[in-house]
Fold ABC transporter permease subunit.
Amino acid sequence: MFVSIRRYQRTSQIHSYNGWESFIRKTTRHRIAIIGLLILVYMLTLSIVSQFTFDTTLATKNQFNALLHGPSLAYPFGTDDFGRDLFTRVVVGTKLTFSISIISVVIAVIFGVLLGTIAGYFNHIDNLIMRILDVVFAIPSLLLAVAIIASFGASIPNLIIALSIGNIPSFARTMRASVLEIKRMEYVDAARITGENTWNIIWRYILPNAIAPMIVRFSLNIGVVVLTTSSLSFLGLGVAPDVAEWGNILRTGSNYLETHSNLAIVPGVCIMFVVLAFNFIGDAVRDALDPRIH
């Protein structure tokens, strides 16, 4: 018997993996996800390093002796109609676009987890919360953001709020579905029988087991929010027109598509690569965390 116990212990040690180790192992199997991660790391590193190595004033400084210059050693991507260096504007805009997008999604996740958990666990207010969220969900997120910004003005805080509100319902729905499934599990019933506090049950038993779908949705939604952020700025409803943000840069370049197409192509390609990178990573995270795939 002792031999079998020792054999079982050795076998369990061989096949036991820490949750994070298993997640990383499964995620890194996706070569496309690694490519997406490298793209994001490269862009973020370049953006951070630029604060110490680049003359970032070139992103906002008007140089009337260098209007609409083509790509050169001095200006790798050329200059815009105000003589501002396009390369510097794109690099500086990376940090702003990423910051707005990630902060917006994080806020949406926080409120989505809170509302979804309350709605899923407490049946008496489930209907009220979900009907309110259904009203918000019925409005296209881009249209809702346009309405909010048009009412309160174009600024970075208003843009973040508008993007967050539009994403809360989808996160709340995902969280509610997970909570409804988990609260029927035997270990949750056992915790109730032992007399554990309701909020303690939610914190210890439900949230840790319901968070995986939220991580998947978080990683997939960031790419969508990057696209929405740039779209709003392109429409003039995002940040101020002189701020170096990819949507703003693309809007300026769209006026010169026939004569200086690089002004629109460069920010457009950056947006495309970032959205693809986040989608690649999101797909890998979903494959790693979704038990139905395995």
User: Anything to note?
Assistant: Residues 86-121 form the longest helix (36 residues). DSSP finds twelve helices and no strands in the chain. The radius of gyration is 24 Å.
